[in-house]
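Reviewer 2 asked us to include a model.

Predict the structure of this chain.
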Amino acid sequence: MIRVPKVRAIDAEGNMVGVVNTQEALRMAEDAGLDLVEVAPNADPPVCRVMDYGKYKYEKSKKAKEAKKKQHIVHLKEIKLHPKTASHDYQFKMKHARDFLLKGDRVKATVVFRGREITHLEFGERLLNQLEEDLSDIAASEQRNKREGRNMVSMFVPDKAKVKQYQRKIEQERKRQEAGEKAPEEELSE
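Predicted model (structure tokens):
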């Protein structure tokens, strides 16, 4: 319900009618078979538009859904390592950390010390430093080698500029590979 005496009216086609009496604007909307909707209540005088309010609400909710769909919720993913993690296991976990970072998630790398392993913290530091070096092309270190009880933790966040550059490089290599594979097939057909 519009409670002001005068409003700035916009008709159904989007043309400015001007400052008119609220009753006259309501009559215009009724004649068109539409509603009078206040689109800018804080303006002086308030701006009202003649439109189908149900359609307006539907389109507004549709736009909100689209915006929500495009948002990415950042999750914290964790990979756990041990000071004596084998090379293949390290590569496997590093690949998962890389995938998480490329998806836009943060990664917490934890080295868990068991028993007397705690006396050799340098093994854990070496492992986390190696991981930081391997992920440096797509991530930045948010927290480096912090001790938490029997664990040592590093946090990595995706660096958006580096991730885009990395993805561009991968795409170029893929295109080059496709072009390289097509060329020999063309030679055989001639």
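The radius of gyration is 30 Å. Residues 78 and 108 are 5 Å apart (CA to CA). We have added this to the supplementary material.
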